[in-house]
TrEMBL record:
<keyword id="KW-0862">Zinc</keyword>
<keyword id="KW-0809">Transit peptide</keyword>
<dbReference type="InterPro" id="IPR027794">
    <property type="entry name" value="tRNase_Z_dom"/>
</dbReference>
<keyword id="KW-0460">Magnesium</keyword>
<protein>
    <recommendedName>
        <fullName>ribonuclease Z</fullName>
        <ecNumber>3.1.26.11</ecNumber>
    </recommendedName>
</protein>
<dbReference type="GO" id="GO:0046872">
    <property type="term" value="F:metal ion binding"/>
</dbReference>
<keyword id="KW-0479">Metal-binding</keyword>
<dbReference type="GO" id="GO:0042781">
    <property type="term" value="F:3'-tRNA processing endoribonuclease activity"/>
</dbReference>
<feature type="domain" description="tRNase Z endonuclease">
    <location>
        <begin position="141"/>
        <end position="197"/>
    </location>
</feature>
<comment type="similarity">
    <text>Belongs to the RNase Z family.</text>
</comment>
<comment type="subunit">
    <text>Homodimer.</text>
</comment>
<dbReference type="GO" id="GO:0005739">
    <property type="term" value="C:mitochondrion"/>
</dbReference>
<keyword id="KW-0378">Hydrolase</keyword>
<keyword id="KW-0496">Mitochondrion</keyword>
<dbReference type="InterPro" id="IPR013471">
    <property type="entry name" value="RNase_Z/BN"/>
</dbReference>
<keyword id="KW-0255">Endonuclease</keyword>
<dbReference type="GO" id="GO:1990180">
    <property type="term" value="P:mitochondrial tRNA 3'-end processing"/>
</dbReference>
Length: 1004
């Protein structure tokens, strides 16, 4: 019998009668805190904020107050205002049901309700006859090839999605696919490539509406490991509807004598069977590696009756090895009842009509005959069938070719089991081209005569078309304005050497004559299933092509002054470049050319800029260039902002990740939100992004909120894959303790090839007290020292949070004494890794956000210049998520660059306080009071879709971060002066946005 296991994970704290154990309490807190950026429970809310949110109606949706810093453009369109008012007056529920695009209410912190959420599944009334139905390719990862594409099976009243790789949520936001309407999700495999987007998605759904939403998620047995891993940071309540099916790889191991269980794995497992559709799963296993593979011929095993041999072979399976073929069979539509025919056969109108319609034969009233349904009903229309086939590698081919459960779907199949032969209308192939272009696979495809084949696996030609058009558009515009800071256009061509992809079969087109209809998938391509008259392909919603040149042309016609701005910006670099240190005689020549509200350059500003151009005057007017930048080269360090948004990925900003390129000395990653790999590919191209992943010295994670670490597994799994067979060390992951739980659980599914080091052991105090005494000293102990000391038991004692506060108790809770036996080798390794990377020190700094939240200080080693002078190393500080705090001020003392979160605009201090974030001004103040040379702001609330609101008066040393912005250490002096021009780029922002929205509204 097929096994269906529902993993029901109900939160014990839901029943108030039951006392919570200490650990349950801790978990409940981490539950709340893990949703801190998402949705929150009342327990987490500081007392003083209660009044703020209960009186939120006195604010408008931006929390705007009269005379605040909103730029003119917000009011540029009266139509837009109307549209917004309409939106606001619709009430929260409807607004949020419009899709998981952006939960404004949550982002504003107005979603806190005291009562626990229910996270109900949707109940729908189904109608098989009049529904519209199609399968649609959601080309997530089609351009970057970092995730598997998803497929949407759409019905009026039900929606199913197959696979949820990283970025699915962002993709759906972009293309107005309403995730809130999805009922079931299915995984073709359980790995980061196909399921990496799931954690973020569950959290988003849980945050929708008053009660939150949930979705049924189905995966092969190994899905339980994935669920287990997610439990370390996702509340159980958000995952109640996860189901795994089929025997587990463990079962195979433990129970290899139970041959019946093994056989059952080859039967289709029916998952959904309602009036409209039946969805069943057929499991697919790889050929067995290692010694098994040498001894056994898999095809023969699968066909043989030697069940013992089968089970032995299966026992070598690893979790994550199982792939699933899904068969979606729409129910047939019964033919119409013809009363004239019934009359002619001597039947009176009455209950017998209904019997016939229900498929039963009845006796005629007037004649002595039996009347059968076929006598009075028009012929029924068979339900269309779609198959989704994920054959991830050639190792699965043999079993695919011999799977008996596929027999009914093949044309000309000799029916031996009395099962009806089924006619498949469409087969969507999710496997990579390297598999689907093999002769074996092609000939297997021919078994489905008459079916439309859609090849949706990765193909090199797809990389030219950006999937996230909105962000590609902004990237292109920024690139036009300032290619130094924005080196990528958001597009690349196949010819580009850095985007060369290893695709061994891409050039060898199938030489055998193609019998079946085969088409390459395109993003949003549909295959219609109902109504029957429309059966077939539909390309009408495939996005029109978009080119970087087109976007620039559009920009120039929209903002003509941008061409001058671009020229002026390029002139800013005259005074920088490889040699930073120069006189600043012309300082007074250029005022900061801040734009006015209307972003029109003042005449004096224009004049001075024209002088810059005509006279070629160096504009480097920094007299305060820190000595560490002396003679710095462009191959020293570059900060690449991969994600600059908070909470959840949005159209324009991905979630947190900072890639620090140390060039020949490797690289580091500070935070790794969902989609980090995709962003790396967008920044560096296919191949170079892989190299960037291979070059990682370490990954540092600030805290356990989903917007900071859910891209980690994908990066680690890819790195392990890329370095297979190459001598290397496991990568060091430095993060909060809870992250280890996630990584340990996840490693059962995929090889992550890493070593974990708790952030707490990398604080200055910890280094000082433990590593120092064990001969690992050499770090600069003054950093952050005043925050923590080790107590007698070897615990780091907190002096940062107020005594008795929840934060403090969580900080102290890990009472396990420092395990020096494990820690010292890891710290020694860190030391080695730092040295190799040309770094002198790394410290984690406890910050004020959630339990175990950290900032980080990275300091470069000193160097010697051409004339033998010793030059100090640069110092970079990243705040993670935090309130402005003394710990970061102390840590940022004389920093070369401080990357600080600035979730909210000025004026929203109370909100920032309530949610443990910072406002723009607060972030700038931290940097200024620490004497940081440059400040880069990031982690903007998604309420600021393109550019956050800021007050230019205070931005003298500061720049706003954008996704893909690449700040070379050699460009730091110029950095703040580019900001006004960037602002110019967004002067029409609101008008554009609203016209987009109008279009979308019309399309729906
Ligand atoms: Zn965050
Ligand atoms: Zn956070």
């Amino acid at each position: 019998m097929p096994q269906i296991t529902g993993i029901r994970l109900l939160l014990p704290s839901c029943s108030p009668a039951r006392p919570l154990s200490a650990s349950a309490n801790l978990f409940r807190f981490s539950f709340a805190s893990s949703l801190g950026c998402r949705f929150s429970l009342a327990t987490q809310r500081p007392r003083q904020s209660l009044s703020i949110f209960s009186s939120s109606s006195s604010f408008d949706w931006r929390g705007r107050r009269p005379g605040n810093f909103l730029p003119q453009r917000r009011r540029s369109s009266s139509d837009g205002d109307l549209a917004r008012e309409r939106r606001e007056s619709k009430g929260s529920t409807e607004m949020e049901l419009e899709g998981a695009t952006f939960n404004r209410k949550r982002a504003e912190g107005r979603d806190r309700s005291a009562k626990p959420r229910n996270l109900q599944l949707k109940v729908r009334k189904l109608n098989p006859v009049s529904t519209i139905c199609y399968a649609q390719i959601l080309g997530t990862g089609m351009d970057t090839q970092d995730t598997s594409p998803s497929v949407l099976l759409f019905f009026d009243k039900q929606r199913f999605i197959f696979n949820a790789g990283e970025g699915l949520q962002r993709f759906c936001t972009e293309h107005k696919i309403k995730l809130s309407k999805i009922d079931h999700m299915f995984l073709t495999r359980v790995c980061s490539e196909t399921a990496g987007g799931l954690p973020g998605l569950l959290l988003t759904l849980a945050g929708i509406g008053e009660e939150g939403m949930s979705v049924n998620i189905w995966g092969p047995s190994d899905f339980k490991y994935f669920v287990e891993a997610m439990r370390s940071f996702i509340p159980n309540a958000a995952m109640v509807h996860t189901h795994s099916f089929g025997g587990t790889t463990d079962d195979n191991r433990a129970d290899s004598s139970n041959s019946g269980a093994v056989r059952s794995l080859t039967n289709p497992i029916v998952l959904i069977d309602d009036e409209v559709v039946k969805i069943s799963a057929i499991l697919l296993h790889p050929s067995f590696s290692g010694e098994c593979a040498d001894k056994m011929d898999v095809a023969n095993i699968a066909n043989s009756d030697n069940l013992d041999l089968q089970s032995k072979a299966r026992s070598s399976l690893k979790p994550g090895d199982i792939a699933v073929i899904y068969a979606c069979e729409l129910s047939e539509i019964k033919g119409k009842f013809d009363p004239l025919k019934a009359q002619a056969l001597g039947l009176k109108p009455g209950p017998k009509y209904r019997e016939l319609q229900l498929g039963k034969s009845v006796k005629s009233d007037r004649l002595d005959i039996m009347i059968h349904p076929s006598d009075v009903l028009d012929p029924s229309i068979p339900g269309p069938i779609v198959l989704l086939v994920d054959c991830p590698s050639e190792a699965y081919l043999q079993e695919l070719l011999s799977l008996q459960s596929l027999n009914p779907y093949y044309t000309n199949f000799m029916d031996q089991s009395n099962e009806e032969s089924k006619s498949v209308n469409c087969v969507i192939h999710l496997g990579p081209a390297s598999v689907t272009k093999t002769a074996q696979y092609r000939s297997w495809m021919k078994r489905f005569a008459g079916a439309q084949h859609i090849m949706a696996g990765h193909e090199i030609k797809n990389i030219q078309i950006p999937i996230l058009r909105s962000s590609a558009r902004i990237t292109s515009r920024l690139n036009y304005l300032c290619p130094r800071l924005f080196p990528t256009q958001g597009f690349w061509s196949v010819q580009h050497p850095s985007s060369f992809l290893q695709d061994s079969n891409a050039s060898t087109e199938d030489s055998s004559p193609i019998v079946c209809e085969t088409i390459s998938a395109e993003n949003l391509l549909k295959f219609h299933l109902r109504p029957y008259s429309q059966l077939g392909l539909d390309r009408s919603v495939i996005p029109s092509s978009l080119t970087a040149e087109g976007i620039v042309d559009e920009l120039i016609s929209e903002i003509p002054e941008i061409t001058d701005a671009s020229r002026i910006v390029s002139q800013l670099w005259c005074g920088s470049g490889d040699s930073m240190h120069r006189s600043s005689a012309n300082d007074n020549m250029i005022e900061e050319p801040w734009m006015t509200e209307n972003a029109v350059m003042s005449d004096s500003c224009k004049m001075s800029q024209q002088r810059v151009i005509s006279e070629g005057i160096h504009v480097d007017h920094d007299s305060d260039v820190p000595s560490c930048l002396e003679d710095i080269t462009r191959e020293d360090m570059e900060i690449v902002l991969l994600g600059t948004g908070s909470s959840q990925p949005s159209k324009y900003r991905n979630v947190s990740s900072v890639y620090v390129n140390l060039f020949s000395r490797g690289s580091l990653l500070l935070d790794c939100g969902e989609g980090t790999l995709g962003q790396l590919k967008r920044r560096f191209g296919m191949k170079d992004a892989d190299d960037a992943v291979k070059a990682l010295n370490f990954i540092w994670i600030s805290h356990i909120h989903a917007d900071h670490h859910t891209g980690l597994a994908r990066i680690l799994a890819l790195r392990a894959e890329l370095l297979k067979g190459v001598p290397h060390e496991p990568v060091l992951v430095i993060g909060p303790r809870l992250l280890k739980r996630f990584l340990d659980a996840y490693s059962r599914l995929e090889d992550l090839d890493m070593q974990f080091l708790d952030c707490r052991y990398t604080t200055a105090a910890s280094f000082d007290a433990v590593a120092g005494s064990l001969g690992l000293g050499g770090n600069t102990p003054e950093l952050g020292k005043n925050n923590n000391k080790l107590d007698g038991a070897g615990r780091v004692e907190n002096t940062l949070f107020s005594k008795g506060s929840r934060m403090e108790s969580c900080w102290k809770r890990p009472a396990s004494p420092v395990d020096t036996a494990t820690m010292v080798p890891l710290l020694a390794k860190l030391k080695r890794v730092l040295h190799r990377a040309g770094l002198d020190a790394l410290f984690s700094v406890p910050v004020v956000h959630c339990p175990q939240a950290f900032g980080v200080v990275v300091k470069a080693a000193e160097r010697t210049n051409r004339v033998g002078k010793t030059i100090p190393g640069w110092k970079m500080v990243y705040s993670g998520d935090t309130r402005p705090c003394q710990a970061i001020v102390d840590a940022s003392r004389d920093a070369t660059v401080l990357i600080h979160e600035a979730t909210f605009e000025d004026g929203l201090e109370e909100e920032a306080l309530a949610r443990n974030h910072s406002t723009t001004m607060e972030a700038v103040n931290v940097g200024t009071s620490a004497g940081a040379y440059r400040i880069i702001l990031t982690h903007f609330s998604q309420r600021y879709p393109k550019i956050p609101v800021f007050d230019e008066k205070h931005m003298k040393n500061t720049c706003i971060g954008f996704d893909m912005m690449s700040v070379n250490v050699a460009d730091l002096s110029v950095l703040p002066r580019v900001l006004p021009y960037i602002r110019l780029l967004f002067k029409n922002e609101m008008a554009l946005d609203e016209s987009e929205e109008a279009l979308v509204a019309a399309a729906n």
